[in-house]
Amino acid sequence: MDANGLEGIVVADTTLSDVDGERGRLVIRGHDVEPLALQHDFEAACALLWSGALPDHGAHAALRAGLGRARVHAFARLGALGDALDARDAMDALRAALAHLHADGLAPLPLKLEITAAVAVSATAWLRRRAGCEAIAPDPALGHAADLLRMAGMAFAAREQAARARALDTYLVAASDHGMNASTFTARVVASTHSDAVSAVVAAIGALKGPLHGGAPGPVLAMLDAIGSPEQAPQWVARELAAGRRIMGMGHRVYRVRDPRAAVMERAIERLEAGGVRSPRLALARAVEAVAVASLGERRPERRLAANVEFYTAVILDAVGLPPELFSAVFAAARVAGWLAHIDEQVAGGRLIRPASRYVGPQPSLAEAA
Fold first, then answer.
1. pLDDT at 125 over 60
2. Alpha-carbon span 87 to 126, nearest angstrom
3. How far is 201 from 336, CA to CA, in rounded Å?
4. Number of compact structural domains in the chain
5. Percent of the chain predicted with pLDDT > 90
6. Are residues 141 and 233 in the same domain?
7. Which of 183, 247, 299, 348 could lock 208 by a disulfide, CB 3.0 to 4.6 Å apart?
C-alpha cells in the first residue's frame, strides 16, 4: 500500500466497474469491456451504468431521444455562458460551461441527460469558437457519438460518417468508466457531502484536466508525428530513453499488462479502416508500441510497461477527425456517464468521505507548550 497515493486502499464497494490490473481486464457492470464497446453504443453504456442493465429496443430509443432533446436544451443555453467558451484550453472552457448549470433548474429532462448533453455540446461549441466559426446546432435524431462529430464540424460522405461515428461510439463506451480513478474519486468525494451532481461533475472535470489523468492522448499524437515512420521508431525510442524521458502512452498505475482498452481501440481502428476510413498512424503506432515494450522491458524487466488506453485513444480520435486540443474534453464526454453513476451510488450508500492524514510537521516548542 502507498498511503500517499491511496494505492491499495479500498474506499468504496461498487457494482459499476472492476479493474483487474494483473490480468488486464476491465468489467463494466458485469460485461467485459471489449465486447461491450465493440457491440454497443454510448446510449447503451449509459443505460447499463445508470440502471444496471443493457436496454431493450424501446428503452434504448427513449434514452437516445432524451439525450437528443437534452443536447438541444444545452445548445439553447450557450448564449448564457458568458465568456466560458473563450478560454484557451478546452477543459477550462468545459469546467466553466458546466458550472453554469443549476441542479434544481434543468427540468423537464432528467439531470443525467442534461449534464451528459452539456459536456458534448459545450466541448464542440468551444472548438467551433476557437476556429472562429458559429456553433452547430444539434440534430436530436442522431445518436450521441454521431452528433458530437457533426457538432464538431466533422462532415464526410454518409458511409464514412457512419464508420467514424461507430468508432467514436466504441471509444465513448470503453472510456465511460474505469474503477476508482482520480476524477471518479473526486466526484464521489463531492457527492459524499450531499452536494449536487453538477458540482461533483465540475470537480471531476478539474481532476481529469491534469496531465497525469486525462491529458496524455494529445502528447501521444505529437510523439507519433515526431517519429514520423515505423522505421524511425527504434532510433527515436532509444534516444528518448537515453535522455531519461518517458514514452507517452506506455505504462499504467494499475495495469501490469497491456491495458484492455488499448486492444478495444486497436480493433475499432481496424474496423474503421474496413469501413473505408484510413488511419495513417495505425501502422506507426503499432511499430512504436512494439519497440517501446521491448526497450522498456530490457531496461526494467521487473516492471513491464505496456500500452495504456491513451496510446490508441490518440490514434482513434485522430482517425475519426477530431483535433488533439479536443481529446481531453471528448474523454470527459465519455467518462461523464461513469461519474454520474458513481455519484448516484455514493449518495445511495456511502458515508461522508473523510480520510485521516498523518502530521509530520514541526511540533510546538516546550516554551509554547508551557
1. yes
2. 8
3. 7
4. 2
5. 70
6. no
7. 183
Which helix H or strand E contains 107, and what residues bound it?
Answer: none
State whether 76 and 92 are in the same domain. yes
Partners of 220 in beta bridges: none
Question: What's the domain range around 95?
Answer: 31-156+179-209+334-349
| pLDDT, the chain, mean | 91
Residues acting as catalytic residues: 252, 310
Answer for the pair 19, 179: CB distance below 8 angstroms, yes or no: yes
Q: What are phi and psi of 157, to 5 degrees?
A: -60, 155
Q: Are residues 193 and 255 in the same domain?
A: no
Residue 277 CA, chain-centre distance (Å), reads 23
pLDDT in tens, 90-99: 999 999 999 9
Angle at the Cα of 321 from the Cα atoms of 320 and 325, rounded to 5 degrees: 120
| Distance separating alpha carbons of residues 299 and 281, to the nearest angstrom | 26
DSSP state letters, 238-282: HHHHHTTPPPTTB--SS-SS--HHHHHHHHHHHHHHHTT---TTH
What's this model's pTM, rounded to 2 decimal places? 0.92
pLDDT at 2 exceeding the cut of 60:
no
Judge whether 299 lies within some domain: yes
If asked whether residues 52 and 138 sit together in one domain, one would say yes
| Chain centroid, CA 362 distance in Å | 41
pLDDT score, position 313:
87
- What is the pLDDT, as a whole number, of residue 61? 98
Domain with 258 in it: what CATH number? 1.10.230.10
Q: Rounded to an integer, what distance in angstroms lies between the CA atom of residue 39 and that of residue 327?
A: 23
Query: What three-state secondary structure class fits 58?
Result: helix
Question: Do the Cβ atoms of 103 and 125 come closer than 8 Å?
Answer: no
pLDDT in tens, 146-165: 999 999 999 888 889 999 99
| Beta-carbon-side half-sphere exposure of residue 209 (alpha carbons within 13 Å) | 14
User: 270 and 205: one domain?
Assistant: no
